[in-house]
Amino acid sequence: MIRFEIKAAASGKWYFVLHVPGAGRSGRVLIGERLHGSKAEVEQEIEAVRGLAMNENAFERQTGRHDQHYFVLKDAAGVVGSCDMYDLPAGRNRAIVEVKNYGSKAPIG
């Protein structure tokens, strides 16, 4: 099941990932987020993702170095989260569809 996971970094800061369980130990991360000072701040960011998930205009498709493809999810204040790099635009686009389909209702767990 696709779900949000809240994690503590080695620095003691907090972050989230929207995670698709799968083959291997870690599965696949659809979207991750920057570090925050508290778990409560991360929970607020998850709510922002849930609110933006169905908004096509919130997804900014980008191409990075070495022609790798990714997206950032933005609200009026700036970047809420971003995805991993994909070799092909189709991988990035598939991740966007999954965030749209599951991001608004994925549980935390």
3D shape: globular
CATH structural fold name: PH-domain like
Q: In what order do the strands lie side by side in the largest sheet?
A: 1-2-3
Tell me which oligomeric state these chains represent: single chain
Give the rounded overall mean pLDDT.
90
CATH class: Mainly Beta
Radius of gyration: 13 Å
Q: How large is the count of helical segments?
A: 2
Key terms for this structure?
109 residues; PH-domain like; three-stranded antiparallel sheet
Please summarize what this structure is.
It contains two helices and six strands, in the order βββαβββα. It has 109 residues and is of the alpha+beta class. A hairpin with a 5-residue loop joins strand 1 and strand 2.
Descriptive overview:
The protein has 109 residues and is of the alpha+beta class. It has a single domain, classed as PH-domain like (Roll), CATH 2.30.29. Helices cover 26% and strands 32% of the residues. It has 2 helices and 6 strands. The chain has a 3-stranded antiparallel β-sheet, covered by helices on one side. Strands 4-5-6 form a 3-stranded antiparallel β-sheet, with helices on one face. A hairpin with a 5-residue loop joins strand 4 and strand 5. The longest helix is centred in the middle third of the chain and has 14 residues. It is globular and about 35 Å long. It starts with a strand and ends in a 7-residue tail after the last helix.
